[in-house]
Write a structure and sequence with these properties.
By secondary structure, the chain is mainly beta. It has 2 helices and 9 strands. Helix content is 14%, strand content 42%.
Length: 111
């Protein structure tokens, strides 16, 4: 696992976050990407809108923020956070080179 490269966020993911935040009355939120134990493969992603915490890694572009907490960071080194639109739906996705396998839903993985 390469611990020197932080996760990257694609311009498409930042653009979608800007669209989401533009529709919010109370102003924008950051996109939190976390890793938790569970899911069908051992770990699962928790992707949600949140406020920054003091110890978060903050990735910023286009006036938007993506947050990664220090516990999740080792699992997301060199990962790419993207937004995907397909016929079956649209969602934020993680391309994680640290995962040795993942389930069909794309939200659960193993190391």
């Amino acid at each position: 696992m390469d611990l020197t490269l932080p996760p990257k966020v694609t311009p498409r993911a930042f653009a979608r976050l800007a669209e989401i935040n533009a529709g919010m009355d109370a102003g924008g939120k950051a996109l939190r990407v976390a890793v938790e134990g569970g899911g069908c493969s051992g770990f699962q992603y928790d992707i949600r809108l949140d406020d920054p915490a003091p110890d978060d890694l903050v990735l910023e572009a286009e006036g938007q923020k993506v947050l990664v907490d220090p516990v999740s960071l080792p699992f997301l080194h060199n990962a790419v956070i993207d937004f995907s639109e397909e016929l079956i739906g649209a969602r934020f996705v993680i391309d994680n080179p640290n995962a040795s396998s993942s389930c069909g839903c794309g939200t659960s993985f193993s190391l």
